[in-house]
Design goal:
The chain is mainly beta. Helices cover 4% and strands 15% of the residues. The longest helix is centred in the N-terminal third of the chain and has 7 residues, at 45-51.
Length: 177
Amino acid sequence: MSHHDEGLSFTQVPTGTIVAFAINSKDIPPGWLLCDGGTIPPQYQGLIQALGQSTTPNLCGRTLIGAGQGANGTQSDGLDPQFPTNMDGSPGYTGGEWVHKLTADELAVHAHTIHGGDFGYHGRSFEGDDDNDCPFETHPDHPLGGTDGAGKDVPHNTMQPYYTVNYIIYAGPGDAR
């Protein structure tokens, strides 16, 4: 299995190989298909059988992640990866979110207590981030109260820094038709 076209050479590439392609999608070499969920042409029966479907994987707006459990089964923080429990280690599962809105359960447990030097200070405001900007010295043994919740409850982007590419899949040499 070998293909040569305009200086590009592909030799012994297994059917189903997916690669990042930084060139415009209209310049995809013969034998390769854009991973955009499009219909696989009928001459590529080997790819259809290998994937178990008649469409290419739709990788538009997605990144790839290795299938299966990591070597030691845990992340650097000691936790198990948060993959869906139905993942059996086979290729083809999808996941992730474009935007994620944190829930109360996902926020770090925390509270803010305001401390003061004496309970006799009424009508004071709190500004700044150290004793030089406070209306009185802070003393942890005299709690005055706490802060209200802060935030705007807006979903936020959690996408890693990126460089966009087209993913292409090797469809094979094609059946003689």
